[in-house]
């Protein structure tokens, strides 16, 4: 090791006496050098599109022409200019990007611009572009006039980085100031509401728009808006509405006749059509890339109610939002009707649409109570069952009894209801069923029904196939059920039911009060872990074996009804009395809306032709 170091020292100490020729490097070319002809392009940019900035834009172009005239060796071939474009991103700066591509093709030797901030306000973009231009053959330099900086000079990158960082931070401060200004404006109710289909911005006597003034309805356009809402509520898809409007030549706000599904979706979700204004619905999430995203409480918002005259009633707008949410989950058709059974053993039970996007338990109570105006007196004739008084006796819960064949049961998790094979076998020949809920009595029931009945559910798609348990997805109804029963959302619940048949009528009823909580536990030590359900004992079961005999009898009254009394288990449901139904449109009303729309369009075309 020591010998190697000594040999290295001797090599460096030797004097090379051999013949050599000195070849000097080419001197750096300065843009001020008069012997070199530069192919030059200039770039200017204004950051907004108001009149004052556009005047600045014209002055910049005149300035560059004069600057080139002062340098006889500069051959100005083109001036690139972007109007109203931010410098923090390269996107949408069409002229700037065209200039860079021309440099890549070797068309220029020099780019002249006012300052680093005009070239780019993004530090990364500025440095990377300058390095790329410097590496071209031949290299392309950038001359920043006010900064007196030429990028092909040595040791310029430090100063360039400093100036680019300063320009970037300046943009950040401007953005923060603009956001603060918008926040204060929204807070004070100074809303800039651009005109949209169905509305116009009011003008003063001089023909100038009145700032912050409420929108005014344009009745000829409002007919189109009303038709869109009516058609969607009647079951039309956004695509079908757009195709229809295109076919009849209906005009958009910009005067075109081509409609798209997205434009229909924008109209259907815009709260301004019911007179409200919601501020800051989207915001710029990425300052450098100018990416916009939906505001999900990332920025303060203000909802101004009845800011201007409405085209669409609030109830109709609310109904459309519910229908849109349903269709996001591939639920087609019109809005579900709110119905209740008003007679028979299922009086007060509510037919459930398990796809309905509503998790408010209050609506189920309101519907059920709409036919239960008389308080039910809970009493029983004890002599019917025994000569002895059975007070104090309990009916043992089926969960405590080991039986060979389990009866009907359902398992409820947050988003699913599963029916066991016993339920499927008892309804083996049934094509469709209804799920019924009585929130006050804490019961769920299922009964056979026809396909056309309210909220019918296909029970067995193929009767020829083997019988399996059935699971229904019901995320929102599941949430409502957990709220009604005050269940722990971390648990799933199993409820055993009672199957009963009288004549041609058969039903299965599940008393939710007797639900058994369970947890899923993963078996460890296996290559493919399997989750096992472990049932828990509710605390209220610790001190008893089951329900009091007479209480059990009342809870299962349908089972103990006298043989000569009809169940009337197949009574059809009716619209819930006194409950506001979701807005719906009949076929006749839709046809009237179409006729009104076509008539308005023909009248407008006639006026334009005159």
Can you tell me about this structure?
This protein is α+β, with helices and mostly antiparallel strands and 610 residues long. The chain has 3 domains: 38-173, Rossmann fold; 199-328, Hect, E3 ligase catalytic domain fold; 340-575, no CATH class. Helix content is 32%, strand content 19%. The strands form 7 sheets. Strands 13, 15, 16, 17, 18, 19, 20, 21, 22, 23 and 24 form an 11-stranded antiparallel sheet that branches. The longest helix has 31 residues, at 157-187. The protein is elongated and about 130 Å long. Mean pLDDT is 78; it is low at 49-54.
Structural class: alpha+beta
The separation of the N and C termini measures 103 Å
Supply the number of helical segments: 16
How many strand units? 26
User: Runs with pLDDT <50, length 5+?
Assistant: 49-54
Secondary structure: elements and pairs:
Layout: H1 2-13, E1 38-46, H2 51-69, E2 74-83, H3 94-104, E3 110-113, H4 116-119, H5 123-134, E4 141-144, E5 149-150, H6 157-187, E6 199-200, E7 216-217, H7 219-233, H8 238-247, H9 261-268, E8 277-278, E9 282-286, E10 291-294, E11 303-304, H10 314-328, E12 339-340, E13 350-351, H11 361-369, E14 394-396, E15 409-413, E16 416-419, H12 421-426, E17 432-438, E18 443-449, E19 457-458, E20 470-473, H13 475-485, E21 492-502, E22 505-511, E23 516-522, E24 531-535, E25 546-548, H14 549-555, H15 557-560, E26 574-575, H16 587-609
Parallel strand pairs: 1-2, 1-3, 3-4
Antiparallel strand pairs: 4-5, 6-7, 8-11, 9-10, 12-26, 13-17, 14-25, 15-16, 15-21, 16-20, 17-18, 17-19, 18-22, 21-22, 21-23, 23-24
């Amino acid at each position: 090791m020591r010998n190697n170091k000594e040999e290295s020292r001797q090599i460096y100490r030797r004097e090379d006496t051999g013949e050599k020729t000195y070849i000097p490097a080419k001197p750096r070319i300065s843009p001020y050098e008069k012997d070199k002809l530069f192919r030059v392009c200039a770039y200017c940019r204004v950051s907004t599109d108001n009149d004052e900035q556009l005047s600045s834009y014209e002055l910049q172009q005149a300035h560059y022409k004069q600057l080139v005239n002062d340098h006889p060796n500069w051959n100005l071939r083109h001036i690139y200019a972007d109007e109203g474009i931010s410098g923090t991103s390269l996107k949408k700066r069409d002229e700037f990007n065209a200039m860079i591509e021309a440099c890549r093709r070797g068309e220029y030797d020099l780019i002249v611009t006012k300052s680093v901030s005009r070239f780019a306000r993004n530090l990364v973009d500025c440095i990377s572009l300058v390095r790329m231009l410097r590496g071209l053959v031949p290299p392309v330099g950038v001359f920043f006039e006010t900064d007196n900086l030429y990028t092909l000079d040595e040791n310029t990158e430090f100063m360039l980085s400093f100036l680019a960082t300063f320009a970037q931070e300046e943009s950040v401060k401007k953005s923060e100031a603009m956001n603060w200004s918008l926040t204060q404006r929204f807070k004070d109710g100074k809303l800039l509401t651009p005109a949209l289909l169905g509305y116009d911005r009011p003008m003063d006597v001089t023909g100038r728009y009145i700032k912050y003034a409420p929108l005014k309805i344009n009745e000829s356009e409002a007919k189109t808006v009303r038709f869109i809402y009516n058609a969607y509520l009647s079951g039309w898809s956004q695509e079908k509405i757009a195709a229809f409007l295109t076919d009849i030549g209906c005009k958009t706000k910009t005067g075109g006749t081509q409609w798209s599904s997205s434009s229909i979706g924008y109209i259907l979700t815009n709260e301004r059509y019911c007179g409200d204004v919601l501020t800051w619905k989207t915001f710029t999430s990425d300052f450098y890339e100018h990416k916009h995203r939906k505001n999900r409480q990332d920025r303060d918002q203000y909802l101004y109610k009845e800011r201007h005259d409405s085209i669409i009633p609030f109830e109709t707008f609310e109904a459309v939002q519910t229908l849109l949410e349903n269709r996001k989950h591939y639920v087609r058709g019109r809005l579900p009707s709110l119905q209740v059974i008003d007679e028979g053993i299922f009086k007060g039970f509510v037919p459930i649409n398990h796809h309905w996007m509503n998790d408010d338990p209050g609506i189920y109570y309101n519907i059920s109570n709409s036919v239960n105006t008389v308080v039910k007196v809970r009493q029983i004739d004890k002599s019917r069952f025994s000569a002895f008084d059975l007070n104090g006796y309990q009916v043992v819960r089926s969960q405590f009894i080991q039986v060979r064949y389990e009866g009907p049961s359902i398992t409820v998790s947050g988003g699913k209801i599963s029916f066991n094979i016993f339920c499927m076998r008892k309804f083996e020949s049934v094509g469709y069923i209804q799920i019924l809920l009585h929130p006050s009595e804490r019961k769920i029931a299922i009964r056979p029904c026809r396909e056309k009945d309210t909220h019918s559910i296909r029970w067995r798609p193929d009767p020829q196939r083997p019988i399996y348990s059935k699971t229904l997805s019901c995320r929102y109804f599941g949430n409502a059920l957990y709220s009604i029963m005050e269940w722990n959302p971390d648990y799933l619940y199993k409820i055993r039911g009672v199957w009963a048949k009288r004549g041609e009528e058969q039903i299965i009823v599940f008393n939710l009060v007797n639900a058994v909580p369970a947890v899923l536990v993963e078996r460890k030590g296996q290559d493919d872990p399997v989750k096992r359900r472990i049932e828990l004992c509710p605390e209220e079961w610790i001190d008893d074996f089951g329900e009091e005999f007479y209480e059990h009898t009342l809870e299962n009254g349908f089972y103990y009804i006298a043989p000569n009394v009809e169940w009337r288990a197949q009574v059809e449901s009716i619209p819930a009395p006194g409950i506001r139904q979701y807005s719906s449109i009949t076929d006749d009303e839709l046809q009237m809306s179409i006729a009104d729309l076509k008539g308005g369009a023909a009248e407008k075309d006639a006026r334009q032709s005159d």
